[in-house]
Write a structure and sequence with these properties.
By secondary structure, the chain is mostly beta strands. Helices cover 13% and strands 46% of the residues. The chain has a domain at 29-112: Beta Barrel (Thrombin, subunit H).
Length: 133
């Protein structure tokens, strides 16, 4: 009887020792684009082909980048940065939409975001039966 209990105890200890902790899912970095406020529409010349943007902070928007504007009543426009700037002001060509002085100007920036990566399942090891003899 003691041999049976010892064998059962040994089997339990063996199974516990061989058990693996559940792995945490690895996280992969993905980049999503989120709007970031970069300035406001400061001036719209009468020909309405371009605008002057008063930047909030240093201007780090690349020439040719697409900006969007958002007004308080839901109006929106798309702008393309020309690369011309003077102090806190930068010029952008109006591509589409409607805008007014004071509308917010946004750029899309890539922000790293973590997503759950799929876990590759490992095949289970066969369980050996212990026979008393």
């Amino acid at each position: 009887m003691k041999i049976l209990q010892a064998a059962a105890l040994f089997l339990c200890v063996l199974l516990i020792a061989c058990a693996e902790k559940p792995e945490q899912k690895p996280r992969e970095k993905a980049e999503t684009e989120r709007p970031r406020l970069v300035g406001r529409v400061a001036s719209i010349p009468s020909d309405r082909k371009f605008v002057l943007i008063q930047s909030y902070g240093s201007w780090k928007v690349e020439t040719g980048s697409i900006l969007t504007t958002q007004g308080p009543d839901g109006r929106a426009a798309n702008l393309r940065v020309t690369g011309e700037k003077l102090g806190q002001y930068a010029a952008a060509d109006i591509q589409s939409g409607t805008l007014e002085i004071g509308d917010g100007v946004y750029t899309l920036t890539k922000i790293p975001e973590y997503v759950e990566a799929p876990i590759e399942e490992e095949p289970e090891a066969p369980v050996e039966e212990v026979r008393e003899g």
